[in-house]
């Protein structure tokens, strides 16, 4: 008899109680609070990867140019002239005076970063990449510094932020690193990405 009463009560129950629903809503809220910042960090890392990849391509173009002409070329920052959290098209016409045509570098599509190269005209150059992928209004500037042959000095980067003494190693946070892609200053995204 008691079993029939429980069976009837369970059969008449057609939905969830308000407590069960509130528990589910609370769990979803807790999971989203944990997951959203992690997802945003991964998105920023993916955007920054564009900068590293293109800087490596610019470095290769510079080294190829050096092998052919015996000197490195400077390249003025190309369009987009301003960067923000969205992508902008790379616009570089064949008649532009930018050095990117000289070294033979032209990416396709839209960019998060603005790129430039400063060279001493002989044996040293610095590639710079500037962005605001997180949209906080502060530029994140990354660089690659190749010092003059036989010295420990490079040239200041195209945006005036990357020193000729090298970049910061993004893994160890050690400053003054040469021939390594890294942040130009301590405020350029080490903690965020």
Structure description:
The protein is α+β, with helices and mostly antiparallel strands. The chain contains three helices and six strands; from the N terminus they run ααβαβββββ. It has helices spanning 2-12, 18-69, 99-103, and strands at 88-89, 110-111, 114-119, 125-131, 140-146, 182-183. The strands form two sheets. A four-stranded antiparallel sheet has the order 3-4-5-6, covered by helices on one side. It has a two-stranded antiparallel ribbon with strand order 1-2. It starts with a helix and ends in a 10-residue tail after the last strand. The model has no long low-confidence stretch (mean pLDDT 83).
Question: Can I get a quick summary?
Answer:
It is built from three helices and six strands, in the order ααβαβββββ. The chain is of the alpha+beta class. The strands form two sheets. Strands 3-4-5-6 form a four-stranded antiparallel sheet, covered by helices on one side. It has a two-stranded antiparallel sheet with strand order 1-2.
Q: Helical proportion? A: 25-40%
Total DSSP helices: 3
Low-confidence stretches: none
Beta content comes to 5-15%
| Spatial extent as radius of gyration | 26 Å
Amino-to-carboxy terminus distance: 65 Å
Order of helices and strands: HHEHEEEEE
- Strand arrangement across the biggest beta sheet: 3-4-5-6
Q: Main β-sheet: number of strands, strand sense, barrel status?
A: 4 strands, antiparallel
- Mean pLDDT, nearest integer? 83
* SS-derived structural category: alpha+beta
Overall strand count: 6
The rough form would be described as elongated
By oligomeric state, this entry counts as single chain
């Amino acid at each position: 008899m008691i079993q029939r009463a429980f069976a009837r009560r369970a059969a008449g129950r057609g939905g969830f109680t308000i407590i069960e629903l509130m528990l589910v809503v609370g769990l979803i809220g807790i999971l989203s609070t944990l997951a959203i910042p992690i997802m945003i960090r991964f998105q920023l890392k993916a955007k920054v990867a564009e900068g590293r990849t293109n800087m490596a391509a610019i470095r290769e173009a510079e080294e190829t140019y050096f092998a052919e002409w015996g000197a490195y070329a400077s390249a003025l920052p190309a369009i987009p002239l301003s960067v923000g959290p969205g992508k902008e098209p790379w616009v570089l016409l064949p008649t532009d005076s930018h050095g990117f045509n000289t070294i033979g570098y032209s990416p396709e599509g839209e960019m998060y970063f603005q790129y430039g190269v400063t060279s001493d005209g002989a044996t040293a150059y610095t590639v710079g990449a500037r962005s605001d992928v997180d949209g906080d209004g502060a530029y994140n500037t990354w660089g690659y510094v190749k010092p003059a042959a036989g010295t420990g000095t490079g040239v200041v980067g195209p945006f005036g932020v990357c020193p000729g003494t090298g970049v910061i190693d993004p893994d160890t946070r050690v400053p003054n690193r040469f021939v390594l892609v890294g942040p130009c200053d301590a405020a350029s995204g080490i903690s965020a990405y």
